[in-house]
Structures are given as structure tokens and as C-alpha cells.
Design goal:
Blueprint lengths: L10 H18 L4 E7 L32 E5 L8 H4 L2 E3 L19 E5 L3 E4 L6 E5 L5 E5 L30 E8 L5 E4 L6 H8 L17 E7 L2 E7 L14 H5 L7 E7 L5 H15 L1 H4 L2 E7 L6 H15 L4 E2 L8 H12 L1
Parallel strand pairs: 1-3, 2-4, 9-11, 9-12, 12-13, 13-14
Antiparallel strand pairs: 1-8, 2-7, 5-6, 5-8, 10-11
Length: 354
């Protein structure tokens, strides 16, 4: 008799595996840093040529100049919010200029190449520290590498002592460089907090953004942007993935995520009211901001205690007062689930923009 094999199939395990793969693909859609190689076009060579026409006994030189090589241009455009296009292509080369021709015809200039980047993109040298350009507005454009000049044809070298020069020069080589593209989101408000502090829930409640939400840490793998309306005012909030201790040194990809906070006008720090260590967690985030960049730590900050729906009113008052006494700042108490305290918080944020 053939042996019967019993295969235990776990739908729960399969679902978790599928979610993990899905998360990876979701993260791949967002890319905030890329290294690319650029090369402008070489100049075309000059031509050596002489007039050869009927009834012209002593035709002089008529070699044209070579065409200039194409430039490498970077332009800030609308409609992009990630550098994902540069994950699959890292080499960009402009066209070479054509060589010169007879009858004093110059070669055609090489075609330039334009790299399109989203608002908030910085161009860094290969050392990842030297800032070359910073694109903060749509329409900004900069020639990063100039194409090489074309070579001179023999017409250029004609003189009274040399009526028939046979000299021409090759085109000048283009420039080349490795650069880093680094995207730092531009938002009015930067959302801060420990993993699972309720940032994604808050963003989904106050805007039309639909970030992934679940009851486990690190649900958010990439920054999300949402447009929030308070009365007649609109502003942009960036949901930064949860930070952990050591983030300024790169722990949990914190160094990359902290970069998206730099351009925010004000910080909204969400603290989980259900966490027994909420005061310590708040201080950890503040410490990471100061270690990363003191200018970020000095930004205006609004603090809100989240998940108030999990407590009775008297418990909320007790926890709020204890928190305020410890840090010496006034805080808001909200619940993104039942929208308690959301309007006062948004109005407080609007005051910074007025």
C-alpha cells in the first residue's frame, strides 16, 4: 500500500509570509537615496578639408569645427515623490558631438540628457558630504556637467604664412562623476514617535493618506505624506517611520528617516499613552534628535498623547499631569480612533504657519 503523507497547512503562517513579501515590495516603491554615474558628451573632432571646385585653382582650407558634447542636466519636476527610477538605471551618458565637415560645416552638437528628480532632492558629491545642489522648488534646473568643446578644423589654423594647414584638433573630453541623490521630504509638519505610537492612524484619520496600519511595531516602512485641512487652512504632514534608540547612528534605518524631518517647519511628537515607559520613550526621541542635528532638535514641537480611548477620563488626567510635570511642557490628549481632541491639536499646528 502506498504511504499516505499528511501535510499540515497553516493558513495563518502563509498569510504572515505573504505580508512580509508584500511589505518588501511596498518598501521598494520608495527610494530616498541613490548613487549614479554621470558623463557629459565628448566634443567632436575638427575636420581637415580643402576646397575642390571647378575653376578654383588654389582652393583653401574649409574644414569645420567639431560639435560640442551634450550636457548633463538635473531638473526638479512635479509628480515625483521618490527616487525609485534610479534603482534600475545608474549610468547616464550624454551624446558625443559630431565631427566637423568640409565647406566649413561644423559638427552637430550632442544631445544633452536630463535627470528628473522630485522636490526636496539634494545632489551630493561622491564623498556623500559635499552639497552640490539642493532642489526645493518645481522648475529648478541646473547643468551639472558641461559637454566637451568641439575640436578646431583646419580652417582655424590658416594664416599668412600657412595657407594650406593640415592640422585639426580632436574634441575635448566630457566630464564624468559619481554623485549621490538624496531625497528629503518637504512637509509642514513632521510626525515623530516610537514605533506603534499611532502615527499612521493619526495620518489616516486627519488626511486622505492611506498608510498601512497594524497593531505591531514598524508597520510603516517608508515615509508617507498627507494633506491635512483644519478649518480653512491646509498643510502637509509627513509620517516618519518609528524611531528607536540609536537612530542617529543608523539603528533601524533611523539616520535615513531623520533626514526627512530636517525640512519640517514644526514637529508633532506622538507618545503612546498606553506605554508604561512613555516619559522615557519621549526623552529617547528627543535625545536622538539632538544627537543627529541640533537645528532639528530646536524646531518648534507640539506633543500629543495618543490612544486616549483606552482609559477612563480620570486616568487620562492623572497620566497627562504626570507627563507635563516631568517634561515641563503642555501636551494634548487625542484618540485617532474616535477623533477625540483632533481639532484642537490641528488648530494648534496651524498657528505656526499663520
Amino acid at each position: 500500500m502506498p504511504k499516505k503523507f499528511l501535510i499540515k497547512f497553516s493558513w495563518k503562517r502563509l498569510k504572515l509570509e505573504f505580508l512580509n513579501v508584500f511589505d518588501i515590495f511596498e518598501a521598494m516603491k520608495f527610494l530616498d537615496e541613490a548613487k549614479v554615474f554621470l558623463k557629459s558628451g565628448d566634443g567632436g573632432a575638427g575636420a581637415v578639408s580643402f576646397r575642390r571646385e571647378k575653376f578654383v585653382e588654389f582652393g583653401g582650407p574649409d574644414g569645420g569645427n567639431g560639435g560640442t558634447g551634450g550636457d548633463v542636466i538635473i531638473e526638479c519636476v512635479n509628480g515625483l515623490n521618490t527616487l525609485i527610477d534610479y534603482r534600475y538605471q545608474q549610468h547616464f551618458k550624454a551624446k558625443k558631438g559630431d565631427h566637423g565637415h568640409g565647406r566649413n560645416k561644423s559638427g552637430r552638437a550632442g544631445d544633452s540628457i536630463t535627470l528628473k528628480v522630485p522636490v526636496g532632492t539634494q545632489i551630493l558629491d561622491d564623498d556623500r558630504e559635499t552639497l552640490i545642489a539642493d532642489f526645493t522648488e518645481v522648475g529648478q534646473k541646473q547643468i551639472l556637467l558641461k559637454g566637451g568643446d568641439g575640436g578646431k578644423g583646419n580652417t582655424h589654423y590658416k594664416s599668412s604664412t600657412n595657407q594650406a594647414p593640415r592640422k585639426a584638433t580632436p574634441g575635448f573630453p566630457g566630464q564624468e562623476a559619481w554623485i549621490w541623490l538624496r531625497l528629503k521630504l518637504i512637509a509642514d509638519v513632521g510626525l515623530l514617535g516610537m514605533p506603534n505610537a499611532g502615527k499612521s492612524t493619526f495620518l489616516s484619520t486627519t488626511s486622505r493618506a492611506k498608510p498601512k496600519i497594524a497593531d505591531y511595531p514598524f508597520t510603516t516602512l517608508v515615509p508617507n505624506l498627507g494633506v491635512v485641512k483644519s478649518d480653512d487652512q491646509e498643510f502637509v504632514i509627513a509620517d516618519i517611520p518609528g524611531l528607536i534608540e540609536g537612530a542617529h547612528e543608523g539603528a533601524g534605518l533611523g539616520h535615513k528617516f531623520l533626514g526627512h524631518v530636517e525640512r519640517s517647519k514644526v514637529l508633532l511628537h506622538l507618545v503612546d499613552l498606553t506605554d508604561e515607559n512613555m516619559i522615557e520613550n519621549y526623552k529617547i526621541i528627543r535625545k536622538e534628535l539632538e544627537a543627529y542635528d541640533h537645528t532639528v532638535a530646536e524646531k518648534q514641537e507640539v506633543i500629543a498623547l495618543t490612544k486616549a480611548d483606552a482609559f477612563l477620563p480620570e486616568e487620562i488626567i492623572e497620566k497627562k499631569e504626570a507627563f507635563e510635570d516631568e517634561i515641563g511642557k503642555q501636551v494634548f490628549v487625542i484618540s485617532a480612533i474616535n477623533k477625540t481632541g483632533i481639532k484642537p491639536l490641528l488648530r494648534a499646528l496651524v498657528r505656526f504657519f499663520d
